[in-house]
Amino acid sequence: MVRDIMDIYNRNVITILILSLVLVFPVTFFLYFASIYLYQSDSIEYANLPVLYLLVLNFTVLFPPFFSLAQNDLNDMVYKKRELIVIFINKFGYITFLTLVFYFIGIFGSFFFFIPTFIAGCLMLLFPLFSDERKVGISIQKTWTIFKKEHIFILLDILLIISLNVLAWAGATYLVANFENNTIVYILLRAIINSILFPFVYFYLTIKYRRDSNFHIQEKDYV
Q1: Residue 46, number of CB atoms within 10 A of its CB
Q2: How far is CA 75 from CA 96, 125, 136, 210, 222, in A?
């Protein structure tokens, strides 16, 4: 799988750099800046809840263009770079809304021994993989199908992604620890880390959970 990820990266390195500069970097900068503003605001109670949502959204909302890039590459399909930008714009509302729905399920699920929280976390990781579906019902059904088959491995992937982020952040902050830093510097550092790390994570998830998936769901069953 590592070789497949590197092959996709090497064949599309220019496109990945463009997406990172145009999408990942500015979106991460904006959402982290908003997170810090909310966290430091005295007028918002339980500010950690919207802050955590924005951090999760930072991951999910950037997924569709990289998923589309990987799918096109794996299927030897030609694509235009601007089409990936358009995909991000078109799917922004859809991803934001479903992320919010699953996030609320996860928050309220913490009162029920965290089982709904675990399910919601897995679904948030997976549902952007089916953002290419024309109907939300089909997207959710396919996400649920993958969850039922791979829930243990999905949990391990969540832990792996969190661990990679923690290690990358710890290493980056250690490198700049001896310099005079401020909030903007740390936000820029986070944006750089995400620009490097996110494409690899997106490609990994695409190859693992969509490459060999075969679904037969009738669209007429959904409104």
Answers
A1: 8
A2: 28, 23, 24, 12, 27
- The answer for residues whose C-beta is within 8 angstroms of residue 159's C-beta and 6 or more apart is none
pLDDT at position 113 is: 67
User: 3-state class of 184 per DSSP?
Assistant: helix
Q: Are 106 and 83 in contact (CB under 8 A)?
A: no
Residue 68: count of CB within 10 angstroms of its CB: 21
What is the pTM assigned to this prediction? Answer: 0.88
Burial class (CB in 10 A: 0-12, 13-18, 19+), 171: exposed
What sign does the dihedral 141-84-155-188 (CA atoms) show?
Answer: negative
pLDDT at residue 221 in the model? 41
Separation of CA 139 from chain center: 16
Using the predicted structure, report yes or no on whether residue 2 has a pLDDT greater than 50. Answer: yes
pLDDT digit string (tens) for 153-209? 998 999 999 999 999 989 988 888 777 778 888 899 999 999 999 999 999 999 999
DSSP assignment string, 74-101: HTT----HHHHHHHHHHHHHHHHHHHHH
